[in-house]
Design brief:
The complex is a heterodimer. Chain A is an alpha/beta fold. Helix content of chain A is 42%, strand content 17%. Chain A is built from 8 helices and 7 strands. The radius of gyration of chain A is 17 Å and the shape is globular. The relative contact order of chain B is 0.19. Classes of the chains: A alpha/beta, B mainly alpha. At the A-B interface, loops of A face helix 2 and helix 3 of B.
């Protein structure tokens, strides 16, 4: 039996691997045969993810991606040790539900740094010749919020919109280097981040919101991980610069 | 928590003249207390007082004093 998603022999970096979509993606890619480099801030939680993984010995790499200036040296060091990388799934990010009237520059900067700048620096460094394999794939986790409007989402939407525009441009620029760059754009998925965002709404408001916006209901982290695996593996060989909505129908309405 | 300062923060949040909000005010009587104000309040409490308040607790509040009590009673979270 053939498995078109087979990742045997590939080393894939997964950021945000300590929880949610990142943890689910790391687990799935490991199950598909990849050697996974688990990136996150919290060692304990990375180890928890590592224990969920099967197969090839995996590597945890605790790092705070908001330390943008330190990313180049850190990623190069990792590549020396376990590289070159065949893929990067950038799942790290923070949610933001802040109305414009109370949106401060400090918060805006935190959101842009975590959700956007980190992706740019990671992609730039990944594209260095000795860091990536001949054919490789970068998947950035954006959001439907990067394409569609919602109140109190201006900072988050702007960061994810920037991510989508960046991915398209990088895809064109890096095609000749054998690197594909794509985004997945999830909507409401049951994660810790969702629970935190959900704090801003009453349970009734939340149920009404999900039912009104997502014909297929609330998603799971694994739903998004499957889409990421598809874009990382050879199944995505002819796809670059695209944004795959993984949203239970949210973006279709 | 300084209550006077808290009410001034509410003034600013609700875009009313400084000194407008005072102890005893009922949320139902405040024209600008709407769903966006609730989310703004959560963001303000996080930024200025370092506390994370669920919307369902705010939904139980009747007065500005109740809001002050929630902020005062909630343990700050480390980021």
């Amino acid at each position: 039996m053939i498995n078109p998603l087979d990742l045997t022999g590939r080393t894939i970096v997964v950021t945000g691997a300590s929880a949610g979509i990142g943890r689910s993606t790391a687990t799935l890619l490991g199950g598909l045969g990849a050697r996974v480099v688990l990136v996150g801030r919290n060692v304990e939680r990375l180890n928890e993810t590592a224990r969920l993984l099967e197969g090839t010995p995996h590597r945890i790499a605790p790092f705070d991606l908001t330390r943008l200036d330190e990313i180049p040296q850190w990623l190069a060091g990792l590549a020396d040790e376990v590289g070159p990388f065949s893929g990067l799934a950038h799942c790290a990010g923070i949610a933001s539900l802040v109305p414009l009237r109370v949106l401060g520059i400090g918060h805006l900067d935190e959101v842009m740094r975590t959700d956007f700048y980190s992706a740019v620096v990671l992609t730039k460094e990944f594209s260095r010749k000795r860091l990536h394999a001949a054919n490789s794939s970068i998947v950035l986790v954006a959001s439907v919020a990067g394409m569609l409007a919602a109140p109190a989402r201006s900072a988050y939407s702007a960061s994810k919109g920037a991510l989508i525009a960046f991915a398209r441009s990088a895809a064109v620029e890096l095609a000749k280097s054998g690197i594909r760059v794509n985004c997945v754009a999830p909507s409401y998925v049951r994660t810790d981040m969702y629970e935190k965002t959900a704090n801003g709404l009453t349970p009734e408001q939340l149920t009404a919101l999900v039912n009104a916006t997502q014909p297929l209901g609330l998603g799971t982290p694994l739903d998004v991980a499957h889409a990421i695996a598809y874009l990382i593996a050879d199944t995505g060989r002819w796809i670059t610069g695209s944004v795959l909505a993984v949203d239970g129908g949210y973006a279709s309405q | 928590m300084n209550k006077t300062e808290f009410y001034r923060n509410l003034d600013e949040l609700l875009e009313v003249d400084p000194g407008t909000i005072k102890s005893g005010d009922l949320l139902a009587d405040l024209e600008s207390w709407d769903s966006v104000a609730v989310i703004s309040f959560i963001a303000m409490a996080d930024e200025k007082y370092g506390v994370n308040i669920p919307a369902k607790r705010i939904a139980e509040c009747r007065s500005v004093d109740d809001l002050a009590a929630i902020v005062a009673d909630t343990q700050p979270v480390s980021k």
